[in-house]
Amino acid sequence: MGSLKQLYYEAKENPRLRRTFLAQVDLQERGPYVRKVVYGLPQTYRTDECTPMAVDPHPFSEENCPGYQAKIIVHPLAFYEDYIVTLDDFLSILIDHEGFHAREYFLTPQKISLNAFCLEEGRALMSVDRHYWRDVFENRAYHNQLEQHRIGRRKLSSAMIDSIHENMGS
Ligand SMILES: [Zn+2]
Questions:
Q1: Which of 26, 44, 83, 96 is a Cys-bridge partner for 159, taking CB atoms 3.0 to 4.6 Å apart?
Q2: What digits encode the pLDDT tens for the residues 105-148?
Q3: Strands of 53-56's sheet in order across
Q4: Cα(40)–Cα(139) distance, rounded to whole angstroms?
C-alpha cells in the first residue's frame, strides 16, 4: 500500500477506496473524542445544505453530555468539493475542524448548547440567528484550522483558506 497521500488521491477518483482511506487516517489528539469516522450520504440528503463533513450528534442533541464520543460523518462531497484540494485540506476539516467540535462536545457540551435543558431554545436560536450560531462555536473551529496552518502543521491550499475566511464571514 502506498502513502496516505497517494491513497487519498486514489479515493478521490474511486469511491470504493474511501472507507479504506478513512480507516488509515490517524485522528491524532482528537482520537479520544471520536467514536468513529463514517463515510456516507447524509440521512436527509439535500445538496444545497450538504456540508463535506459533520459531527453526529449535532450540538443541540439530547445525546450530548460530557464524555460522549461523537461520530464524524464524511459525506461524498468531501472528496470532490472544489476547495478541498489536498490531503492537508481534507485533514484540516476532519481533524482540526470536526475533531475540534467533537472535543468541545465531549468536554463541555453545555458550552455549546448554552443550557443542555434548553434544546428547543437552542434550535430556535440557530434558525433565527445564523451569525450567533457561527460566533458561538463555528468560528472557534475555523480559527483552529487557520492556527494549525499558521504553525506549519498543515499546509492548506489557498482555495481552502479562502473558504474558511468566507465561512467566518470575514
Ligand atoms: Zn463546524
A1: 83
A2: 888 765 555 444 445 655 665 565 555 655 667 888 999 999 99
A3: 34-39, 70-74, 53-56
A4: 26
Within 8 A by CB and 6+ apart from 121, the residues are 114, 115
Domain count, the chain: 1
Between the CA of 56 and the centroid of ligand 1 the distance, in Å, is 11
- What spacing in Å lies between the alpha carbon of 101 and ligand 1's midpoint? 7
Calculate Rg over the CA atoms of the chain.
16
Percent of the chain at pLDDT above 90? 58
Distance in angstroms (rounded) separating the CA atoms of residues 89 and 93: 7
How close is the Cα of 1 to the center of ligand 1, in Å?
32
* pLDDT at residue 50 in the model: 76
Report yes or no: 93 and 75 within 8 Å, Cβ to Cβ.
no
Q: Number of C-alpha atoms within 13 angstroms, CB side, residue 14?
A: 9
Domain of residue 30 covers 4-168
Gap from CA of 141 to ligand 1 centroid (Å): 6
What's the rounded mean pLDDT across residues 81-93?
A: 97
From the CA of 14, how far away is ligand 1's center (Å)? 26
